[in-house]
Structure formats: structure tokens, C-alpha cells
Here is the input.
Amino acid sequence: MLAGVGAPSAAANDMATTNASIFDSVDVNGDGKISRQEIIHFIDLVFISTDADGDGHLTVEEFLQWDPGYLAMAEGNDRAADMNDVKRDIYGSRDLNGDGTLEHDEFSVASLYDFYKAEVNHDRTLSQDELLNHYQIIRRVRLAIR
Ligand SMILES: [Ca+2]
Ligand SMILES: [Ca+2]
Ligand SMILES: [Ca+2]
Here is the structure.
């Protein structure tokens, strides 16, 4: 089906909707900013939900199953493999000793470090722009699936 002239395409619409819903799911208190506490909470949820066998370690296979919300769009754009490449690359950069597993602390520290790197205007919180365009895993997945 073709989108009408001047109307946003379904894909662009999905992207905007998904972006907003990811931000809202992290911004638990709904103040439009993501605090350190909120990102820590989010990171913990990601770890717990991704550690499928519950052994306290993430394997790369477990990590590849994690979908921040972009998988359906990636598949629609025939970019699911590119999304997995990004996730594999990020996993590799976190598994510093290369033993093929990430512990909770290893995962949290790296994810929190990404929070500070994404925090470009130094107000100690992430805006939606900072989360989408500067928070490493979100930024790289979004770039990979276009
Ligand atoms: Ca908040
Ligand atoms: Ca595991
Ligand atoms: Ca900020």
C-alpha cells in the first residue's frame, strides 16, 4: 500500500511511535526526563528479562533476543540482520575478558557509563533526543534499521 502524498509513511510513523513508547517506558515518573535512577531501573529490567535461563549471566544468544522495540520495524525494512550485528558488536565491547558471558555488574556499569556519555547538556538527565540520538545502543540500533 502506498502512503498518500504528504502523509508520513507508515514506517516513519512506526518509528516516531516506537521512539516515544521506549522513552515513556524508561521515564517512569513521566516528567519528560530520564534520571540516573530511572536508567538503572531500566537496565535492571533489561538484564532480568534478557537473562532467559536466570543464571545471572547474559550470553550473546540471550542478548540477541532482546528487542528494545524496533525488531518489527527492522524486519519490515529487511534490517533484522543489521540490528543483530549491532547488538553482537555492543555485546563484544562489554564482554571485556571475552569469556562469552556478561555478569549483571559488567552489564550495568557499561550501560550506566553510556548514560553519562549520552548526557550531552549536563543537566544530569536524558531528554528524548539524548536517549534516541546519543544513548549508544538505541542510537546504533536506530541507525542500523533505517
Ligand atoms: Ca523521569
Ligand atoms: Ca543466562
Ligand atoms: Ca541531559
Notes: The two ends are 19 Å apart (CA to CA).
